[in-house]
Design a protein that fits this description.
400 residues; alpha+beta; Beta Polymerase, domain 2; Hydrophobic Seed Protein; 4 domains; 7-stranded mixed beta sheet; two-stranded antiparallel sheet; 20 helices; 11 strands
Length: 400
């Protein structure tokens, strides 16, 4: 374990001990336990307890309300935040997404029964003893994703669980147990009940996974892909060639580029992507399309960042079998060899130019700066104030 992870576990153990000293049951639960069993790094450590939220808050000095309606209190010990949630069962589900109410219980078994998959229904004591009521360890050993109880009931309760199952195939490299998989196929249309934001969040996790193509295949075979927003090329065989970039913007861009007419704005709207991510995808798609039609020009090298150029080069090689590859190190060298990387690197400023021509600012100034920028970029003039002034006064198209 890393130092940070070890500290999380140690703080978690102390929280559990404190709760038990007060007469409550408390255990580690969720993905952290699953990762512990697999000897993987746990990102978030969660605790479940028989103590009610107000009882948890009364026991610990530093807490924050992060989900009281669902029984969750953030306990902060030694500057480490740990979510502590009361054992609970869910009421009826009316919208295939959220229970109408949550009932707090004192039984760990009742709490574990409501969880989605057996591999996520493991619990662990503070001395690292595994509590496994649904053969989750066996499923971990066999690389199997299986629902807790009847899969039709689990997916009817929360349609997002279907997409979560697909995500776990991509993250863990596991396969979905046949009964659970057939249930997803029969309920795939109900993914429409889930908000676009939640769908996008799951796709983001798939994009960042180590078994991307396995996840994409499961998405298509389960029929979920055909019920996701838009009409995108999840079924395209070229997903196999992409590998595992574990890069969100690259995968969104690839999904867009596999369409007959890539329209980033449409994709971003359908999946409610942030403006920042939309801009990243736009740059990648634009650069990749340029590269698929030929080599990058000086202007292309200049307008795109090194990272975009490199990713576009890789994407172009995946999309076009006949695309003559350009070595990445050569591409990076070409980019770095440009006289300037942005207009900010010019040796002159707008103030300099106004003084040379004794004129106030205006549209002419921006045009002149652009003219200098292009001249320097194409090495018509050295990026030096003296040379630029001489060139501008004697050789440029600028008119006083």
């Amino acid at each position: 374990m890393s130092t940070t992870e070890t500290k999380q576990w140690q703080v978690g153990k102390e929280i559990i001990k404190t709760l038990k000293q007060k007469g409550y049951e408390a255990v580690f639960v969720g993905g952290a336990v699953r990762d512990f069993v697999r000897n993987k790094v746990a990102n978030d450590i969660d605790i479940a307890t028989s103590a009610l939220p107000e009882e948890v808050k009364a026991i610990f000095k530093r807490t924050a309300d992060v989900g009281l309606a669902h029984g969750t209190v953030l306990v902060i010990e030694d500057f480490v935040p740990i979510e502590v949630t009361t054992f609970r069962t869910d009421g009826e589900y009316e919208d295939h997404r959220r229970p109408t109410d949550v009932k707090f219980v004192r039984s760990l078994e009742e709490d574990l029964k409501r969880r989605d998959f057996t591999i996520n229904a493991l619990a662990m004591t503070e001395d690292f003893h595994i509590i496994d009521l649904f053969d989750g360890q066996r499923d971990l050993e066999n690389g199997c994703i299986r629902t807790v109880g009847n899969p039709l009931n689990r997916f009817n309760e929360d349609a997002l669980r279907m997409l979560r199952a697909i995500r776990f195939t991509a993250q863990l490299g596991f396969s979905i147990e046949s009964t659970s998989f057939e249930a997803i196929k029969s309920r795939a249309h109900e993914i429409s009940f889930v908000s676009v934001e939640r769908i996008s969040a799951e796709l983001e996790k798939i994009w960042m996974s180590a078994n991307l193509f396995q996840g994409i295949k499961s998405l298509v075979k389960s029929n979920l892909a055909s019920h996701l927003p838009g009409d995108h090329a999840f079924a395209n065989d070229k997903w196999k060639t992409l590998g595992n970039p574990q890069n969100s913007s690259v995968c969104w861009a690839y999904l867009c580029l596999l369409n007959k007419q890539p329209v980033v704005a449409q994709l971003a709207k359908q999946y409610k992507l942030s403006n920042d991510l939309k801009n990243q995808i736009t740059q990648l798609v634009k650069a990749t399309q340029i590269r698929c039609n030929g080599f990058f020009t000086i202007e292309d090298l200049y307008q795109f960042s090194e990272d975009v150029l490199v990713q576009a080069e890789i994407l172009a090689s995946k999309l076009k079998d006949d695309n003559e590859p350009l070595q990445i190190d050569k591409l990076v060298h070409l980019k770095k060899s440009l006289p300037i990387q942005s207009i900010r690197e010019l040796a002159v400023t707008g103030q300099d130019i106004m003084e040379w021509f004794d004129k106030p600012g205006g549209p002419w100034l921006k045009e002149t700066l652009t003219q200098i920028e292009r001249a320097v970029l194409h090495q018509k003039v050295t990026n030096d104030a003296t040379y630029i002034k001489e060139w501008l006064l004697n050789e440029s198209n600028h008119k006083e």
